Amino acid sequence: MKKSALLQNKNSGAAHSPETPVMEHPPASLALFPTSRGLFVTVTLATFLAYLRTLAPGLTFGDGPELVTASYVLGIPHPTGYPLYMILLHLWMLIPLGEPMLMGNLFSAVAGAIAAGFTAVFFHRLLVSMFPEWPRKSLLVSAAAGAMSMAFLKMIWDNATVAEVYALHMVFALGFLLAAQSFERAHHPRTFLLAALWLGLGLAHHRLSIGFALPLALMSFCAWRRWERRTAIRTFALAAAIVAAAQLFYLYIPIRAAAQPPINWSNCVTWENFLKHINGSEYLGQRFMRLAPGLPIMLGPWLRHELLVLWELVGDLAAQAFPVHLHEYILLENRQYFRPSEPAFATGLTVLFIGAYGFFYWFRHQRFSAMAAALIAAMNFAVVLLYNIADVGDYTLFPFWFLYLSAFIGIMPGCVRLARLFLPKGIAPRAEYAYALCSVPAALFLMNLKQCDQSRNDEPELYSYFVLPMRTSDMPENSILLTSADYDIFCSWYRQLVRRERTDVFVFGANFIGSPWYESFFTPEQRRKYSIKMHHRIPRSAEEYAEALHEGILKHNVGRFPVFTTLNDPYVIDILSKYYEFKKIGAKFFRPRDILGLKSTHIWEIRPKATGAAKP
Question: Model-level pTM?
Answer without folding.
Answer: 0.89
